[in-house]
Amino acid sequence: MNILPLSALLWTGRAPDHPLALSGAMPIGFGRFAAEVAGATARLRGTGCRRAALLCHDSYRFAVGLFGLLQAGITAVMPPNGQPGTLNTLSDAFDLVVDDAFLDSLSGDVASLTPLCPTRPVFEFFTSGSTGAPKRIIKTLAMLEREVAVLDRLWGQEMGRGPTVATVSHQHIYGLTFKLLWPLAAGRPFAGEMHELWETLLDRLPANAVIVTSPAHLGRLSGIAPLAPARRPRGIFSAGAPLSLLAARDAVAILGVCPTEIFGSTETGAIATRRQTGEDAAWQALPGITIASDAEGRLKLRSPFLDNDDWFETADLIEPTARGFHSRGRADRIVKIEGKRVSLTEIEQALGHSPWIAAAAAVVLPGDPARLAALVVPTEAGRARLAELGRFRFGRLLRRALTETQEPAGLPRLWRFSDQLPSGHMGKPRDTDLFALFGASR
Question: Is 364:337 a contact under the CB 8 Å cutoff?
Answer without folding.
Answer: yes
